[in-house]
Each structure stands twice: as structure tokens, then as C-alpha cells.
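Help! Submission page says 'invalid entity' but I think these are all valid:
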Amino acid sequence: GAVVSQHPSRVICKSGTSVKIECRSLDFQATTMFWYRQFPKQSLMLMATSNEGSKATYEQGVEKDKFLINHASLTLSTLTVTSAHPEDSSFYICSAPLPGAKNIQYFGAGTRLSVL
Amino acid sequence: KQEVTQIPAALSVPEGENLVLNCSFTDSAIYNLQWFRQDPGKGLTSLLLIQSSQREQTSGRLNASLDKSSGRSTLYIAASQPGDSATYLCAVITSGANNLFFGTGTRLTVIP
């Protein structure tokens, strides 16, 4: 079945550093990928929609200059948290819908980011 | 904007009990509703998906119902087991959108 691979699963970094998270669709092409964020004891919230070959669409309140999204190929989207701060510590997870079947989305395993 | 609410926020039951988790959504124009399981610090496992035209789906000990007009869904877990302990999330895809709107989750603990 379709698989989405997300890497790394866990990151611990110092404040001020940048962190890149990768999301790959392994056996299907994804022109769109979604990035979600989950703070402790809260639900998953959509951050942005990554579009292959064009700019990402950010949800209200999400800083596009801080959370850089690149979707350079049909199987890879990256989220870079620039100059990370402790308040960016969260669980980040990506998903990709099957082409032509937006009802079906596959999720990565998520990335736990801890900024010290 | 779609809002998804889950009640209760936490639930603790003895092993073997049947239980019901509730989910409500404000915009009934949905494509589908899904129930997920999330284990601590881990990703999501899809449990059941109900299309907007369906009223229920069953998988093993799990049964999910959907009442689109009233904006409600329930997840019924029969004969609960300690391994069922996890956070259960419901999520909907609203017509015209591709992303999921997630509920706040119900943290289930099944006591042996």
C-alpha cells in the first residue's frame, strides 16, 4: 500500500538553529502534501499546504518566513523551521492524498521537535 | 470554518467494557469522516473512514456511525482491551477542501 515516509522522527536542537523535516511519498506521486502541527494536549492543526512546483499555502497565523516549505518534486516536500525557538517545540506530521482520491490520505510517522 | 469537537476529552474504563466516543462538527458539508488512533509520540493510524453518503462502518471490534445532518459521529469499541489505550481522533474533509480538520481527541485508558 501507499506509504509516506517522514524523517527525522525526533530532533533536539539549540535555540536559533534551523531544522529540516522531509516528507516523501514512496510509491505514489503527490502534487499536494499537508503539514500539520500538534502542541501538547491539543489537536492536530493544519499549518500549510505544499504544492509541487508552486508556492505553499499557509494557514492564518503561520509565519511563512519561519516555516519554509519546498515541494521540488512529486515525491518530496520539506519543512524547514528556521531559527527555531522553544515555542516551536511540537509534533509535526505530514500527509499526502492519493492522486485523484483526496478522500484517502496517508500520514508520515511524525517528527517530534524539541528546541532547548 | 469547520470546527470539530470530541467528548469526552479523557476516558478510563475497565477491561472488557464497551464504550462510545463522540465527535461533532459544525459544517455538515463534508466529504468524509475518519477516526484515527494516535499512540503517545507517534503518528496516526487510520481506523475507519466513513464517506458522506454512508451511515456506518465496521472493522473488528470497532463501529463508527455518521449522522451528517446533525454533525455527529460516534466510535463504538466493543470489549475493550488494554491495547486499545491511546488517543482517538476524528477528522473530516470539508467539501471544497483537501485537508483534514481534526478534533481535539479523546484519551482512552483501558485498565487491566
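Support: the input was valid. A stray whitespace character was the problem, and the output above is from the cleaned input. The two ends of chain A are 38 Å apart (CA to CA).
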